[in-house]
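Case study: LysR family transcriptional regulator.
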Amino acid sequence: MDLVGACKAFVNVSERGSFTLGAAAARMPQPVASRRIAALEKHLGARLFDRSTRRATLTPFGRDMLPSAKRLVRIAEDMEHDAERAKLTPLLLAVPEICCTRDLALLDAEARRQGIHLVFHPAPPAERAELLRSQQVRAAITEVPPGEGRWSVPLGLASATALHTETVYVETLRAGRTDRSSRRRRIWIQPEDDVPHIRDRMIRVRDTVGLQPAQVTVAIALTSALAEVLGSTDFLLSSPQQAEELDLCWRPIGEIRLVRSFDVFAGIGDDAERIRTRLHAGIARCLGASPENGAAA
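Here is what the predicted structure looks like once written out:
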Protein backbone atom coordinates (compact mmCIF):
# COMPACT_ATOMS: atom_id res chain seq x y z
CA MET A 1 0.00 0.00 0.00
CA ASP A 2 1.12 3.54 -0.79
CA LEU A 3 0.88 4.88 2.77
CA VAL A 4 1.95 8.43 1.87
CA GLY A 5 -0.45 8.62 -1.09
CA ALA A 6 -3.30 7.26 1.03
CA CYS A 7 -2.62 9.79 3.78
CA LYS A 8 -2.56 12.63 1.22
CA ALA A 9 -6.00 11.55 0.00
CA PHE A 10 -7.27 11.18 3.58
CA VAL A 11 -6.04 14.63 4.65
CA ASN A 12 -7.35 16.47 1.57
CA VAL A 13 -10.78 14.79 1.63
CA SER A 14 -11.15 15.50 5.36
CA GLU A 15 -10.22 19.18 4.90
CA ARG A 16 -12.71 19.72 2.07
CA GLY A 17 -15.52 17.44 3.23
CA SER A 18 -15.80 15.92 -0.23
CA PHE A 19 -14.16 12.98 -1.99
CA THR A 20 -14.38 14.81 -5.32
CA LEU A 21 -12.84 18.07 -4.10
CA GLY A 22 -10.30 16.30 -1.90
CA ALA A 23 -9.13 14.11 -4.76
CA ALA A 24 -8.69 17.18 -6.99
CA ALA A 25 -6.66 18.93 -4.27
CA ALA A 26 -4.47 15.82 -3.92
CA ARG A 27 -4.04 15.76 -7.72
CA MET A 28 -5.47 12.31 -8.22
CA PRO A 29 -8.67 10.93 -9.80
CA GLN A 30 -11.60 10.54 -7.39
CA PRO A 31 -11.76 6.72 -7.78
CA VAL A 32 -8.04 6.51 -6.95
CA ALA A 33 -8.53 8.64 -3.81
CA SER A 34 -11.46 6.44 -2.73
CA ARG A 35 -9.45 3.23 -3.25
CA ARG A 36 -6.47 4.61 -1.32
CA ILE A 37 -8.61 5.70 1.62
CA ALA A 38 -10.35 2.30 1.63
CA ALA A 39 -6.94 0.60 1.65
CA LEU A 40 -5.82 2.85 4.53
CA GLU A 41 -8.93 1.97 6.51
CA LYS A 42 -8.28 -1.72 5.94
CA HIS A 43 -4.63 -1.28 6.97
CA LEU A 44 -5.58 0.60 10.17
CA GLY A 45 -8.53 -1.65 10.94
CA ALA A 46 -11.30 0.95 11.29
CA ARG A 47 -13.38 3.42 9.28
CA LEU A 48 -12.01 6.94 8.77
CA PHE A 49 -15.17 8.43 7.22
CA ASP A 50 -18.87 8.05 7.97
CA ARG A 51 -20.33 7.07 4.62
CA SER A 52 -23.95 7.34 5.74
CA THR A 53 -23.98 11.05 4.88
CA ARG A 54 -23.49 12.89 1.61
CA ARG A 55 -20.53 14.83 3.03
CA ALA A 56 -17.19 13.18 3.81
CA THR A 57 -17.54 13.28 7.60
CA LEU A 58 -14.79 11.95 9.83
CA THR A 59 -15.53 9.19 12.30
CA PRO A 60 -14.16 9.58 15.84
CA PHE A 61 -11.37 7.19 14.78
CA GLY A 62 -10.73 9.33 11.71
CA ARG A 63 -10.43 12.49 13.84
CA ASP A 64 -7.91 10.72 16.09
CA MET A 65 -5.81 9.59 13.10
CA LEU A 66 -5.88 12.88 11.19
CA PRO A 67 -3.00 14.58 13.08
CA SER A 68 -0.69 11.62 12.45
CA ALA A 69 -1.64 11.57 8.76
CA LYS A 70 -0.89 15.29 8.45
CA ARG A 71 2.53 14.80 10.06
CA LEU A 72 3.35 11.98 7.64
CA VAL A 73 2.29 14.05 4.61
CA ARG A 74 4.31 17.04 5.84
CA ILE A 75 7.41 14.87 6.38
CA ALA A 76 7.04 13.39 2.87
CA GLU A 77 6.70 16.87 1.34
CA ASP A 78 9.74 18.10 3.28
CA MET A 79 11.70 15.09 2.04
CA GLU A 80 10.75 15.80 -1.58
CA HIS A 81 11.77 19.44 -1.13
CA ASP A 82 15.11 18.41 0.41
CA ALA A 83 15.69 15.99 -2.46
CA GLU A 84 15.21 18.77 -5.02
CA ARG A 85 17.60 21.02 -3.11
CA ALA A 86 20.17 18.20 -2.87
CA LYS A 87 20.06 17.74 -6.64
CA LEU A 88 20.95 21.42 -7.05
CA THR A 89 23.88 21.30 -4.61
CA PRO A 90 27.01 22.02 -6.68
CA LEU A 91 29.52 19.21 -7.09
CA LEU A 92 32.99 20.70 -6.67
CA LEU A 93 35.24 18.98 -9.22
CA ALA A 94 39.02 19.39 -9.39
CA VAL A 95 40.11 19.55 -13.04
CA PRO A 96 43.44 19.92 -14.88
CA GLU A 97 44.58 23.46 -15.46
CA ILE A 98 45.02 22.62 -19.15
CA CYS A 99 41.22 22.51 -19.68
CA CYS A 100 40.14 25.61 -21.55
CA THR A 101 37.27 27.81 -20.39
CA ARG A 102 34.98 27.05 -23.33
CA ASP A 103 35.32 23.28 -22.96
CA LEU A 104 34.62 23.51 -19.24
CA ALA A 105 31.56 25.67 -19.95
CA LEU A 106 30.28 23.09 -22.44
CA LEU A 107 30.88 20.35 -19.85
CA ASP A 108 28.97 22.35 -17.25
CA ALA A 109 26.03 22.84 -19.62
CA GLU A 110 25.99 19.14 -20.45
CA ALA A 111 26.12 18.24 -16.75
CA ARG A 112 23.14 20.49 -15.98
CA ARG A 113 21.10 18.65 -18.59
CA GLN A 114 21.98 15.47 -16.68
CA GLY A 115 20.90 16.98 -13.36
CA ILE A 116 24.48 17.52 -12.14
CA HIS A 117 25.61 21.03 -11.13
CA LEU A 118 29.39 21.35 -11.35
CA VAL A 119 31.80 23.90 -9.92
CA PHE A 120 35.36 23.58 -11.24
CA HIS A 121 38.59 23.86 -9.27
CA PRO A 122 41.54 23.92 -11.72
CA ALA A 123 44.76 22.59 -10.17
CA PRO A 124 47.95 20.67 -11.07
CA PRO A 125 48.05 16.87 -10.56
CA ALA A 126 49.45 16.67 -7.02
CA GLU A 127 47.14 19.42 -5.77
CA ARG A 128 44.07 17.72 -7.27
CA ALA A 129 44.91 14.53 -5.40
CA GLU A 130 45.38 16.46 -2.15
CA LEU A 131 42.14 18.39 -2.59
CA LEU A 132 40.28 15.11 -2.91
CA ARG A 133 42.12 13.48 0.01
CA SER A 134 41.35 16.43 2.29
CA GLN A 135 37.71 16.49 1.09
CA GLN A 136 37.98 20.05 -0.18
CA VAL A 137 36.39 18.78 -3.42
CA ARG A 138 33.85 16.00 -3.95
CA ALA A 139 35.60 14.56 -7.00
CA ALA A 140 38.75 15.02 -9.07
CA ILE A 141 39.96 14.20 -12.58
CA THR A 142 43.26 12.59 -11.67
CA GLU A 143 46.27 11.46 -13.70
CA VAL A 144 46.93 7.73 -13.48
CA PRO A 145 49.55 5.43 -15.06
CA PRO A 146 49.00 4.48 -18.72
CA GLY A 147 46.40 1.77 -19.22
CA GLU A 148 44.60 2.51 -15.94
CA GLY A 149 42.52 5.50 -17.01
CA ARG A 150 39.21 6.09 -18.76
CA TRP A 151 40.70 8.79 -21.00
CA SER A 152 44.08 8.77 -22.74
CA VAL A 153 45.76 11.65 -24.55
CA PRO A 154 48.92 11.36 -26.71
CA LEU A 155 51.85 13.64 -26.00
CA GLY A 156 54.44 14.96 -28.39
CA LEU A 157 56.65 17.97 -28.99
CA ALA A 158 55.25 21.34 -30.08
CA SER A 159 57.23 24.21 -31.53
CA ALA A 160 56.56 27.80 -32.53
CA THR A 161 58.63 27.20 -35.69
CA ALA A 162 57.57 25.04 -38.61
CA LEU A 163 58.51 21.36 -38.39
CA HIS A 164 59.40 19.68 -41.67
CA THR A 165 59.50 16.10 -40.40
CA GLU A 166 56.66 13.80 -39.40
CA THR A 167 58.41 12.84 -36.16
CA VAL A 168 60.76 14.69 -33.82
CA TYR A 169 63.64 12.67 -32.39
CA VAL A 170 64.99 13.91 -29.08
CA GLU A 171 68.53 12.96 -30.13
CA THR A 172 68.45 15.72 -32.76
CA LEU A 173 68.63 18.25 -29.92
CA ARG A 174 72.08 17.00 -28.99
CA ALA A 175 74.72 19.57 -29.79
CA GLY A 176 77.28 18.64 -32.43
CA ARG A 177 81.02 19.09 -32.03
CA THR A 178 80.99 22.17 -34.23
CA ASP A 179 78.06 23.77 -32.41
CA ARG A 180 79.54 26.49 -30.23
CA SER A 181 76.24 28.04 -29.16
CA SER A 182 75.97 28.36 -25.40
CA ARG A 183 72.22 27.78 -25.47
CA ARG A 184 70.90 24.33 -26.30
CA ARG A 185 67.37 23.67 -27.52
CA ARG A 186 65.23 22.50 -24.66
CA ILE A 187 62.09 20.48 -24.02
CA TRP A 188 59.75 22.09 -21.50
CA ILE A 189 57.59 19.82 -19.36
CA GLN A 190 54.50 21.66 -18.15
CA PRO A 191 53.10 21.17 -14.62
CA GLU A 192 50.31 18.83 -15.81
CA ASP A 193 52.98 16.38 -16.99
CA ASP A 194 55.11 16.62 -13.85
CA VAL A 195 54.15 13.05 -12.88
CA PRO A 196 56.51 10.05 -12.70
CA HIS A 197 55.16 8.08 -15.66
CA ILE A 198 55.75 11.08 -17.96
CA ARG A 199 58.53 13.17 -16.40
CA ASP A 200 60.83 10.29 -15.43
CA ARG A 201 60.48 8.54 -18.79
CA MET A 202 61.27 11.79 -20.61
CA ILE A 203 64.35 12.29 -18.46
CA ARG A 204 65.52 8.74 -19.19
CA VAL A 205 65.30 9.46 -22.91
CA ARG A 206 67.27 12.66 -22.35
CA ASP A 207 70.05 10.74 -20.60
CA THR A 208 70.02 7.90 -23.12
CA VAL A 209 70.55 10.17 -26.15
CA GLY A 210 73.14 12.31 -24.38
CA LEU A 211 71.39 15.64 -23.84
CA GLN A 212 72.50 18.01 -21.12
CA PRO A 213 70.37 17.90 -17.92
CA ALA A 214 68.96 21.40 -18.51
CA GLN A 215 67.67 20.44 -21.95
CA VAL A 216 64.63 18.72 -20.40
CA THR A 217 63.16 21.04 -17.79
CA VAL A 218 59.98 21.07 -15.71
CA ALA A 219 58.40 24.52 -16.00
CA ILE A 220 56.95 26.37 -13.05
CA ALA A 221 53.85 27.23 -15.09
CA LEU A 222 52.51 26.63 -18.57
CA THR A 223 52.63 30.36 -19.28
CA SER A 224 56.35 30.61 -18.61
CA ALA A 225 57.06 27.46 -20.64
CA LEU A 226 55.07 28.84 -23.57
CA ALA A 227 56.95 32.14 -23.37
CA GLU A 228 60.24 30.24 -23.69
CA VAL A 229 58.95 28.28 -26.68
CA LEU A 230 57.54 31.34 -28.45
CA GLY A 231 60.84 33.18 -28.13
CA SER A 232 63.10 30.36 -29.33
CA THR A 233 63.28 27.02 -31.12
CA ASP A 234 62.51 25.12 -27.89
CA PHE A 235 59.78 22.49 -27.62
CA LEU A 236 56.78 22.16 -25.33
CA LEU A 237 55.68 18.68 -24.33
CA SER A 238 51.95 18.83 -25.09
CA SER A 239 48.93 17.12 -26.58
CA PRO A 240 47.85 17.79 -30.21
CA GLN A 241 44.74 19.68 -29.05
CA GLN A 242 46.73 21.88 -26.69
CA ALA A 243 49.30 22.64 -29.39
CA GLU A 244 46.51 23.70 -31.75
CA GLU A 245 44.99 25.96 -29.08
CA LEU A 246 48.41 27.56 -28.53
CA ASP A 247 49.07 27.89 -32.28
CA LEU A 248 52.09 25.57 -32.17
CA CYS A 249 53.26 22.92 -34.60
CA TRP A 250 52.99 19.42 -33.04
CA ARG A 251 54.76 16.16 -33.84
CA PRO A 252 55.04 12.79 -32.06
CA ILE A 253 58.31 11.84 -30.34
CA GLY A 254 60.43 9.31 -32.17
CA GLU A 255 62.08 7.54 -29.23
CA ILE A 256 59.11 7.12 -26.91
CA ARG A 257 55.32 7.08 -26.75
CA LEU A 258 53.98 9.19 -23.90
CA VAL A 259 50.33 9.59 -22.90
CA ARG A 260 48.36 11.42 -20.29
CA SER A 261 45.94 8.98 -18.70
CA PHE A 262 43.01 10.19 -16.59
CA ASP A 263 40.23 8.84 -14.40
CA VAL A 264 37.67 10.33 -12.03
CA PHE A 265 37.82 9.65 -8.32
CA ALA A 266 35.39 10.77 -5.61
CA GLY A 267 35.35 10.79 -1.86
CA ILE A 268 31.90 9.32 -1.20
CA GLY A 269 28.94 7.67 -2.89
CA ASP A 270 28.58 7.11 -6.61
CA ASP A 271 29.80 10.55 -7.71
CA ALA A 272 32.76 9.12 -9.65
CA GLU A 273 30.70 6.62 -11.62
CA ARG A 274 27.99 9.19 -12.37
CA ILE A 275 30.58 11.59 -13.78
CA ARG A 276 32.38 8.86 -15.76
CA THR A 277 29.25 7.52 -17.43
CA ARG A 278 27.08 10.60 -17.88
CA LEU A 279 29.81 13.09 -18.81
CA HIS A 280 32.28 10.83 -20.61
CA ALA A 281 32.28 12.67 -23.94
CA GLY A 282 32.39 16.13 -22.36
CA ILE A 283 35.39 15.23 -20.21
CA ALA A 284 37.11 13.70 -23.23
CA ARG A 285 36.70 17.01 -25.06
CA CYS A 286 38.18 18.96 -22.11
CA LEU A 287 41.19 16.64 -21.91
CA GLY A 288 41.80 16.38 -25.65
CA ALA A 289 40.92 12.68 -25.81
CA SER A 290 38.86 10.89 -28.43
CA PRO A 291 35.16 11.60 -27.71
CA GLU A 292 34.04 8.11 -28.71
CA ASN A 293 35.75 6.08 -26.02
CA GLY A 294 38.26 8.37 -24.35
CA ALA A 295 41.22 6.66 -25.97
CA ALA A 296 43.59 8.76 -27.98
CA ALA A 297 43.62 8.26 -31.71
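For the exam, be able to explain this: The mean pLDDT is 90.
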